[in-house]
From TrEMBL, chains A, B:
Residues 5-320 form the FAD/NAD(P)-binding domain. Its cofactor is FAD. InterPro entries: FAD/NAD-bd_sf (IPR036188), FAD/NAD-binding_dom (IPR023753), NADH-Q_oxidoreductase (IPR051169). The keyword Flavoprotein applies. Keywords: FAD, Flavoprotein, Oxidoreductase. PANTHER family: 64 KDA MITOCHONDRIAL NADH DEHYDROGENASE (EUROFUNG), APOPTOSIS-INDUCING FACTOR 1. Its EC number is 1.6.5.-. Belongs to the NADH dehydrogenase family. This is NAD(P)/FAD-dependent oxidoreductase. Pfam families: Pyr_redox_2. One of its GO terms (molecular function) is oxidoreductase activity.
Length: 396, 396
């Protein structure tokens, strides 16, 4: 019998944690583990709103895979997946290389969900990768520098954040901190700068406790963010956005943060999907395939009430850990465990030293929430890179 | 007899030095001195190539007028001049205010000379003010961030510098230093980045000793700058530049550094001008007006061979000093002196620690030239703001 080949696509939370489990638990030659990723780094997606606004460097949210993946045990390929052929048990990369597998782990992450809104894809930014957030940061700065030379163009310093969900709110928190710095750097009168946070749903942060939602809106309001809740965006144009109310907001910067869908590669591979997400079974298997597993934003799992879990880092990490252990068990002929998410609470930052959180029935506000978020970040960094990485990345 | 009104337009080298002379030498109530400037700061134009490339902050090249102008002695107006009416002895500001004067000092600086090249005004940047160079810096960074997301668009990381005169060469020196930093920050392979320095004249740095020119081109060549000398630019488009040779360079960044002309406000005021510069007499007077003086880039003076002096900071400073003293003399009924430029040499930087210079018959290369340039900068800062300013601004 030949050594089984485990192929992991994507070094996001799900794929990385699967890889690290295998790296830690498999003995030499028990399996041939290959990790494919677009970049030679992992990034902390839940931090990306900071470098997007420019309140932290992009470098800060990035972890070199060299630092955490043991290349003696894991074969790393820097490459972009083009297609998955589950019948042939192969994966084709953009460079034409074809990889075969015995076990496949799909952790290719999400794509922005534009809900068919015209022009969003072409004219809006999204907070989705290191390259994307550097582009957003530079775009914002560029707009300030342009406004200073063409002061009638207030659309240069008008910013639209589409979506008051988790990402939209966290990004607004950072923008609120960043704009006074930018005004100072570019000699721009803060009164000219506008930030609109536009949400189609009847509330910001749907699913959060109303008291926390009010607290968040109050904090952000004081930072100058103007909310338009229950107000769908109808169209995004090169000049700004048209709202369903008929109002037009002229803005050269639209950041779309209103949700994600699964990955089009997964859809094209022929798996049954809902919005690009594969409804996996209790063992995270794709329907119809015993050897194809899906983790992270591409995986769709339901709670006991039959409602899908939102795609979060927390669940992706747990999926990766469970799947890694299960793969070891499968190779050794041992018992596998069902995946059961353990929700440890939700924490949203609202800029420096501010946040909100729900941990069980407990509500957290302000610096308490910010501190808990730091603790949670520390825990994750320790998990993937030990004390050294945690100390390097978290400013205490 | 009422107190004579001296009105100074512009706080560049010429206007500022005139103001400082008056501030220092006039007694209380001898004259009413008013300085009008667009900004509440003076900037060190000869440093602007650094913040334009991003190798220094824009803040560094800026000196708050509060720090050097004594508002007890000088009436400062932050405003933009719209027109000069020499017959009425008035100046109109953009906000509609009309200022009258007994003595007028025009130091309104220069505008880019585009030599009628189509599209330059619309599509090229110029290194001309704090606001302009911040815009150039941000534009360059933005292009790097865009390239990373659209790697086929090499025009995003192709930079055209129009002109291999003083400013063009100094800017190329800084760009050569900055690009490796940008490549690192944005994960861009340096092999994709191109910088072209394009000059219509048959040599770079016309007027410089050929040995120094060769040295400069060699230093910049090693930093990756590609020269196209004797190659006029025919047209600038949104996509790049068309050369007289028929070649097209696709570039999203064109920085025009091939010379300046005087100020259109001066032309419109009815003074006799050549390319926006007023041919002043030996006392820096505009022809036909005993009470209108022109300093800096708006003033045209000729050497003994009948060739015009190039507009430099060095001459502007000397003009301001002489004129300031003369104005004091005129008010007191004393003797005025003719303006005679004292050329103390020319120094060009080529990036960090590198430069060339001609001081009398002596040629300077490399670190010696860079050091001399620092000494000259120190001297100027000391002159306008004392030891404190010199120490604050010059990194030793």
């Amino acid at each position: 019998m030949s050594t089984p080949k485990i192929l992991i696509l994507g070094a996001g939370y799900g794929g990385l944690l699967t890889t690290l489990q295998l790296q830690q638990k498999l003995h030499y030659n028990e399996a041939e583990v290959t990790l494919v990723n677009k970049h030679d780094y992992h990034y902390i997606t839940t931090w990306l709103h900071e470098p997007a606004a420019g309140t932290a460097s992009a470098e800060h949210a990035r972890v070199d895979l060299d630092r955490i993946v043991d290349k003696q045990k894991v074969n790393f390929i820097k490459g972009t997946v083009q297609s998955i052929e589950p019948e042939e048990q192969t994966v084709t990369l953009e460079n034409g290389n074809v990889l075969s597998y015995d076990y496949l782990v799909i952790g290719l992450g999400s794509e922005p969900e534009t809900f068919g809104i015209e022009g969003l894809k072409e004219h809006a930014f999204s907070i989705r990768s290191i390259n994307a957030v550097r582009n957003i940061r530079e775009h914002i700065q560029y707009m300030f520098s342009k406004f200073k030379n063409e002061p009638h163009r207030t659309d240069y310093v008008t910013f639209v954040v589409g979506g008051a969900g988790f990402t939209g709110i966290e990004f607004c928190g950072e923008l609120g901190d960043r704009i006074p710095e930018l005004c100072k750097e570019f000699d721009v009168d803060p009164r000219h700068v506008k930030v609109y946070c536009i949400e189609a749903a009847p509330t910001a942060l749907p699913g959060f406790d109303p008291e926390l939602v009010n607290y968040a809106m109050d904090v952000l309001g004081k930072k100058g963010i103007e909310f338009k809740i229950g107000t769908p965006i109808k169209q995004c144009t090169p000049d700004g956005v048209l709202l369903a109310t008929g109002e037009e907001i002229k803005a050269q910067t639209v950041v779309w943060a209103a949700g994600v869908r699964g990955n089009s590669i997964v859809e094209k591979a022929g798996f049954e999907t809902m919005r690009g997400r594969v409804k996996v079974d209790e063992y995270l298997r794709a329907p119809g395939y015993d050897n194809v597993f899906v983790v992270g934003d591409c995986a769709l799992i339901f709670n006991d009430e039959g409602r899908p879990y939102p795609p979060t880092a927390q669940i992706a990490v747990q999926e990766g850990e469970t799947l890694g252990e299960n793969l070891v068990a499968m190779i050794r002929g041992g018992l596998t465990q069902k995946f059961i998410p353990h929700l440890q609470g939700t924490l949203a930052s609202l800029g420096k030293g501010e946040g909100i959180g729900q941990v069980g029935s407990k509500k957290l506000f302000g610096s308490a929430a910010a501190l808990m978020k730091k603790a949670s970040d520390l825990r994750y960094l320790y998990k993937i890179g030990g004390v050294g990485l945690a100390l390097k990345k978290v400013k205490l």
